[in-house]
Amino acid sequence: MPNTYAAITGWGACMPPAILTNDDLSTFLDTSDEWITSRTGMKERRISHVTAVELSTVAAKRALACAGLDPADLDMVIYGGVSNEELCPNSASGVQLALGATKAAAVDLNTACTSFCYGLATATAMIRTGLIKNAVVIGVELISRYMDWSNRNVAVLFGDGAAAVVLQASDEEQGMLGAVLGCDAEARQTLRVRGFGCGYSGYGITFGDTLWDFDGQVIFKRAVQAMSHASVKVLADHGVSAEQVSLVIPHQANLRIIESVAKYAGIPMEKVIVTVQKYGNMSAATVPVALVEALESGRVQPDSWILMPAFGGGLTYCSLLVKWGKRVTPLGTSDAALPPATQTALEMVNTIRAGQDPHGRSKAGLMAPVFTEQRLAAK
Ligand code: UT7
Fold it and tell me: Which ligand 1 atom is at minimum distance from the Cα of 286?
């Protein structure tokens, strides 16, 4: 029996139009364009006026049109990300409904910033083992809604966005052929969004009122280490040299992290897709949005090797090795689009800020829960 592979046959992004600049951020935070640009490479990011399910649906419709696939033929919708309007029902079921993908299973997959890559690995494995044939994998975030906009350590770093790919069973050797997946859980407390989850119930906290634990320097070092080692390992495991890699599409958390990983892996920056200056860190959406931009700007070559290293809360990490197929152009286009935004990005952020408790009353509750590692330490 021939091997089955999971070809990437469709791709589409959905970027909200409203732009929040570094100067916008300095209207309410003690920060500057100079600090943000020099420390992160970021100049601007997007703020969404619609829900994450709407962003995902438009991205998925574009990806399906690109693949020429009817949503009714989908077996699986994977919604990768941390941004859920609700936990029950899950977000993937909302996308399944909006697409009319009535035959598809619907799964939310949360490994924070690596969610899209983990989703791609999961769907690929399901296709390669014959469990399913056609899947859409989404990477999406709507971080603006639960950002702590009073904290300059994190508020300047993140943005909203979405993109999706379609995977289809193929007997040609292509798609994701290798992956190193892991989790540096020892440092999981260095990136925590307080306010979500059962641990906070009963403390009078409203959704969107968060406190972020974020030890930037530790995360930075561990991100470079994990993405670099995973990249070198996945290449060695599959006998692919750094020279053979045509493109690196990394998670976009910080330009300096990307440069360090590329250097360690021995791949020049000319081969690296960088979007961090335009979109900031969109967590799970960074890799698929950068992939779509690479395809749309003609940077993906037929039959080429692509490396996708990523890192995020957990602290989860991965590096995927993808062999692109022959086709680098869409089979069709979709007319799906977002409604126009009626507010500027800064107006939307100011609205969210106004809804966050200015007196810190509910923030007290955010400190209360006892977390796993504290319980373990107490044993
Ligand atoms: O996607 C998931 C994972 N996320 C990441 O991988 C992010 C990893 N970390 C980073 O990218 C970097 O650590 C940051 C960009 C977050 C911070 O850069 P840094 O060079 O590590 O800066 P720092 O945290 O050491 O802060 C340096 C100074 C501090 O002031 P003092 O103590 O030296 O007086 C901060 O208070 O910069 C200050 N600072 C700011 N100043 C202006 C922190 N944030 C800001 C800000 N504007 N937004």
Answer: 1
Pocket test for ligand 1, best of 39, 40, 215, 287 (most atoms within 8 A of CB): 39
Domains of the chain with CATH codes:
5-328+351-377 (3.40.47.10)
Q: How many CB atoms lie within 10 A of CB 373?
A: 13
Q: What is the pLDDT of residue 339?
A: 96
Cβ atoms of residues 59 and 140 within 8 Å: yes
- Rounded to the nearest 5 degrees, what angle is found at the Cα of 349, between the Cα atoms of 92 and 151? 95
Strand-pairing partners, residue 182, are 317
Helix (H) or strand (E) holding 192: strand 191-194
In whole angstroms, give the CA distance from residue 221 to residue 226: 9
- Which residue CA neighbors atom 29 of ligand 1 most closely? 153
Backbone region of residue 231 per phi and psi (left: phi > 0; alpha: psi in -120 to 50; beta: other values): alpha
Residues tagged active-site: 113, 251, 281
H helical segments located in the chain: 22-25, 33-40, 52-67, 91-99, 115-128, 152-155, 216-237, 255-265, 276-279, 286-296, 345-355, 363-366, 372-378
Instruction: Say if strands 76-80 and 134-141 run parallel, antiparallel, or are unpaired.
Output: parallel
The answer to whether the CB of 177 falls within 8 A of the CB of 321 is yes
pLDDT score at 358: 63
* Cβ neighbours of 335 (radius 10 Å): 7
DSSP state of 143: G
Ramachandran assignment for 68, one of left (phi > 0), alpha (psi -120 to 50 degrees), beta (any other):
left
Above 90 in pLDDT, residue 226?
A: yes
